[in-house]
Every structure is written in structure tokens, then in C-alpha cells.
Amino acid sequence: MSHDFPNPQNPHPQAQHHGDAAPHGVADLSALGPHGTPEHYETHQVYEHLPTEPSRPSAQVRLGIKLIYAHAVLIVVHGVASFYRDTIPTSTTVYAQHGAAAMDVTIGKIAVLYAVITLVLVATNILVGVFYSRGYTWARITAAVLAILGAMNNLLLGLLTLIGVFELFAALSRASDSADPGYIEAYRYATIFVVASAVLYLVGLLLCIIIAVYMFKPQAAAFTTNWGMWRAYQKNPSMYVQIPPAHF
To answer: 53 Cβ partners below 8 Å, 6+ apart?
Structure first.
């Protein structure tokens, strides 16, 4: 008596053709891909609520946007103050006492330099603020980086300005013994402007720190993330699937 034993390499030869039904109790794995997934399987983003509209900014996000614009205004004020300080006759008199009159750069070139730097910084802050208000993550990160760099810059220049304040006060006390009233007036004006610059640096330092903190808040990150999902949904809505509401 002969017995036909099934071939261990081919236990079900009748199910080897693609599309044939597998025997009862045997799973048909012919349509699966190399990793056990269907060959024409498409991934979908599953959300409880589809991002059909952009996220509205919260109070913290709106405040962060306003702070960015406020920093742009402060840059303008600081640029104008620095330009005016270097062009008034009393300040140039003080600079001449320290040898600054021998600089190769003229007052006109300094004015152009201040104007260019101020315009670039203001334009950058406004651009970042506009794109952050539209939910771009890169704008939020850029605003945070600029705020950190601005805080470091304001801290360094603020400390140097404070040193200048003490030096000018000492020079003013020595100038009080001079018989030249114009010389005393020059130091007084210079002292006022240097003190004003120190105050502006302090305000800029605090403002930059607050901006950096607000850019890293969870609400700011959620705002830009939701906007990113909304933009992706607008490009390809078919890739998003909504979870049906649960009924208890």
C-alpha cells in the first residue's frame, strides 16, 4: 500500500496561483507584501477632528506676535537714538577728547551704516512676525533664535554702555572745574544719551527674553503644528481619516 505524503515545501499546490482561493482554514498570504502588509496599502493620518480650518491664535500667541513687532519698533528707536547721538555737535566734541575724531569713517557713512542695519533688523522682525502669525514653525523657531541672539547682544552692549556711563560721570565731575561752559555741556549731553542707550539696552534685553520664552511655550508650538496640519490637509485631503465619535 502506498501513501502520498504532502510535500513540506508545497503543502497546498492548488493554492499556489495568485488569486486562487486558499483551502479552508488556511490563510491566503499571496497578496501580502514583503513585510506582511498588503501590496497596495496606503498610509493615512488618523485624527479625531480633521484640520478643515486653520487654528486660531490664543491670547499667548497673539501677545507673542505683538512682542515681535514691539521689538522691531524698539530697534527703530535705538537706531535713531544712536544716529542722533553721533551727529550732534556736543557728542562729537566729547568723542574728539577721546581721539574719536581721527576715525576713517565719516558721520555720513555712519548714518548710512545705521540705516542699513536698522532696516535689515526691522524687516527681519516684521517678516518673522507675519509668518509666525500664519502658523509657520520655521518663523517661530527663527523668532526664538533672533530673540536669544538679541538678548546676548543687548546684555553685552548694555554692560559696555554702563561702563561708559560711569566714565562719563567721572569725566563730568572733572569737567566741572573747567572754565569752558561748552566743554561741560558736551559731557552733559553725552551722559544723557549714554544713559538713555543703557535704558534701551535693558528694555531690549527684557523684551528678547520674554519673546524667547513665548516662542517655546506649548501653546505656540501647538499653534504652528495645527497650521502645518491644516496646510497638509489642504494639499491632500484624501490622506486624512477622521475617527468616528465613540458612543457609550
So the answer is: 230
The Cα 162–Cα 167 span in angstroms is 9
- Residues 6 or more apart whose Cβ sits within 8 Å of residue 202: 154, 158
Instruction: Report the first-to-last Cα separation within the chain, whole angstroms.
Output: 64
CA angle 87-114-156, nearest 5°? 100
Query: HSE on the CB side for 188, CA within 13 Å?
Result: 7
- C-alpha distances out from residue 107 to 86, 143, 185, Å: 7, 32, 21
DSSP 17-51: STTPPPPTT----TTB-TTSSBTT----EEESS--
94-115: per-residue pLDDT in tens? 445 544 444 444 556 666 777 8
200 neighbors 60 (Cβ within 8 angstroms): no
What confidence score (pLDDT) does residue 149 get? 95
pLDDT tens column, 64-88: 999 999 999 999 998 887 766 655 5
Percentage of the chain modeled with pLDDT above 90? 33
Q: Say which residue the cell 523657531 belongs to.
A: 141
Position 13 scores a pLDDT of 53
- Rounded to 5 degrees, φ, ψ at 46 are -105, 125
Query: What pTM did the predictor assign?
Result: 0.67
At position 117, the amino acid (one-letter code) is I
pLDDT digits (tens, 9 = 90+) for 181-208: 656 666 677 777 888 888 999 999 999 9
What span, in angstroms and rounded, lies between the C-alpha atoms of 243 and 111? 61
**Cell, residue 23:** 483551502
DSSP H helices, the chain, are 59-87, 89-97, 107-133, 137-175, 181-215, 218-235
